[in-house]
Amino acid sequence: MDVLVIGAGFAGLYMLHRLRGLGFTARVLEAADGVGGTWYWNRYPGARCDSESYYYCYSFDPELEQEWRWSERYPGQEEIRGYLEHVTDRYDLRRDIELGVRVASAVREDDGWVVTDTEGRERRCRWLVTAVGCLSAANVPDLAGLADFAGEWHHTGRWPHEGVDVTGKRVGLVGTGSTGIQAVPVLAESAGSLTVFQRTANYSIPARNAPLSEAEMAATKADYPEVRRLQRASTNGHPYLVSDVDVLDLPDDERRALYEKAWDRGGLRFRAAVKDVLSDPAVNASASDFLRDKIRETVADPETAETLTPRDHPFATKRPPIDSGYFETYNRPNVALVDVKADPITSVTPGGLRLESGVEHELDVLVFATGFDALTGPLLGIDIRGRDGVALRDAWADGPRTHLGLGVAGFPDLFTITGPGSPSVLTNMPTAIEQHVDWIADLLVRLRETGEHAEPTPEAEEEWAARVQEAADATLLPQAASSWYLGANVPGKPRVFLPFAGGMNHYRQRCDDEAASGYPGFGLRPRGESARSA
Ligand code: NA7
Predict the structure, then answer these.
(1) In ligand 1, which atom is closest to the CA atom of 180?
(2) E-assigned strands of 454-505?
(3) What is the pTM of this model?
(4) Ligand 1 atom closest to Cα of 482?
(5) Which of 50-64, 104-118, 519-533 has the lowest mean pLDDT?
(6) How many CA atoms lie within 13 A of 18 on its CB side?
(7) In degrees rounded to 5, what are phi and psi of residue 497?
(8) Which residue among 323, 483, 489 has the greatest number of ligand 1 atoms within 8 angstroms of its CB, and so is best to mutate?
(9) Which CATH number describes the domain made up of 3-137+373-526?
């Protein structure tokens, strides 16, 4: 094989399509029994994308975007999975995808990579591309007693395909990130009781999901060139630009009206309605106050409302969830909230969850909406060994180091789609993925022509790490101490700001400059020359 690609989600499928078109021999190895990546695994009740359907999709083929019909403003898990299945068939990708193959290790040998799966089967390739996703390594809390829990427990990112019948049952859900906030209203509808264990209160904005009419779909399809232009021009791959209104210059009533309008429109776009919300503390405080007021207005019980009100981080410094009736759900008689920051979970008993105070909550079903070992977890879950047998785990012991999030010093001819240090999770993912895939494809064409190896230089990595830190420091993002952007949700994980916060548009330009100037940060060297130090 010229290229092995690990993962068959948005990234792996498009990578395979591009490689085929360029005449490379390529294969995708996928651990799951189907394509879809994130959207294969995340089947929990309420699983839905927070980007809108008309732009949470590929842009590489105008025919594809004209053909596909989205049914709702935000696509549900099953619909996105269906879309990716369609793409797989439409471009005849399936014959080069091996499903049910979990990669255990990838070892640099001679001029290429030896990739070994968990069954011990080896495959060799010249270039290795990881398309393993940013949020695919489930983070299950290491709680004493979990193995002896008498009920059933599930992580939302590993939800059983046949579903979980919670009808009439006592359900406990841990975690109030985007996932928990999506799942709570749906679980509450059929559970006998639902107890939500909240560690960090979260802001959330109504999604305002709704079916898409034929007329709306037709208008979007007619407008796709402009949608795509805006996506490329924006800082995070969404097809709208950040407002140029200085909210603090507005009289109180006009500012309130601006927030109300953004609230009524709903979704992640709220953030874009508030200029400088992620860089000016006073602007952020004003928007955060508006969102806190909304919680108080929505939740009937004042004590519950107060517990649900975030006070320890500015709005959007953690990934802001959007919801369909989340805060309203706490007005249901069968739903209770437990503050596990005040009274932490200490263990799982056969009958439920025990807190530090000794209080025990009796549960039949335990749901961990506890997120992921983000960005680095999926890569470090594979034993990747570069030049001289150096393990990626060791190279990244103090946090990930990459050049542009695309490659790692010491690991020649390895390319990491949406790797740490790239904008990835701060963007609309398909936009970031397409940019990475296209960039990698161009580089591979050059490497095939010249016979060179590509391996980031330590100097380039160092410079890029400084840029990533600098970009984060120019925002309020590092202020959220418990953010998974910082790796803070996984005990023992180094605290390093993981994605590049300098904007997708600027990042794209930086990558284009790298290519146009002959890939100086990728230390291209003739094939056969064994090491950079040689
Ligand atoms: P997140 O956003 O990481 O949320 C996980 C939630 O689980 C969050 O509220 C955590 O609290 C909580 N958590 C994690 N571990 C524990 C333990 N041990 N005890 C109690 N509570 C815990 O993951 P999601 O799946 O919701 O969303 C991930 C992304 O997917 C999302 O941002 C979108 O990009 C799509 P914490 O805040 O760490 O105190």
Answers:
(1) 26
(2) none
(3) 0.97
(4) 38
(5) 519-533
(6) 25
(7) -70, 120
(8) 489
(9) 3.50.50.60
